[in-house]
Amino acid sequence: MSEESRREEIKESKIDISKLIAIIPPASEILSKKKESVPEKRIRIRFDRSLNKPVAKVPNTIAQILSVKSGDVVEIVVAGKKKATFMAEVIEAKPGEEIVYVYPSNLEKQGVADNSIATIRKVKK
Known about the structure:
- Helices cover 31% and strands 32% of the residues.
- The protein is elongated, with a radius of gyration of 26 Å.
- It has helices at residues 2-13, 17-23, 27-34, 60-66, 105-109; strands at 40-47, 55-59, 73-78, 82-91, 99-102, 116-122.
- It has two domains: 2-33, no CATH class; 37-122, Beta Barrel (Barwin-like endoglucanases).
- It has a six-stranded mixed β-barrel.
């Protein structure tokens, strides 16, 4: 008789799986959150020593993709580790030209070379 009472207790303590599944969000909800990320673009950076302050001259084609206007702050990341922020200045450029000219001081201190490949993104305020 003691075995029967134990079996009854085990049956009563089981949790309904459908209640647990209700807690887990659907995949579409998780994927929609990833789409809200900040747009970014892989570019080549060149040092412009004629600049006197931290400015990045961004071609208009890249500026349109990133929704950047002159005066916005952009972040340039090289190799995922070396970061620098610049004030954006939108310039006219030929289609397909993806070279951003930057003030070299901060990047040179971090060991970034001229003509490096980097990622550019707009900094959210």
